[in-house]
What we know:
Helix content is 0%, strand content 50%.
Amino acid sequence: QVQLVESGGGLVQAGGSLRLSCAASGRTFSSYAAAWFCQAPGKEREFVAGINWSGGGTYLVDSVKGRFTISRDNAKNTVDLQMNSLKPEDTAVYYCAAKPTTTARYYFLRYEYDSWGQGTQVTVSS
């Protein structure tokens, strides 16, 4: 497993932007696929965006396409989520997750990841 620490959450008005960052340590992060999940109050934790081990492939759910971008820097062991045009419905705790794999596929389910950060709160006011 790798240890993951998220940062960058906060309170922003609708239409604003935030950049979440996830710092990894403990293993060779470049051999891990990574993802961002979110969990709103009373709801299940759900997949938002994923990136493969090399950063050459990304996947975003339809609700954030055109607004969010996921990227990684394997030299710095970080995965970022750039969030633009934020909406009140984006309000949630956002979690970084990682899975040791060098396949090209994406992983959408919570149980498929074995490393998790502690989460960072994103609140979007209307």
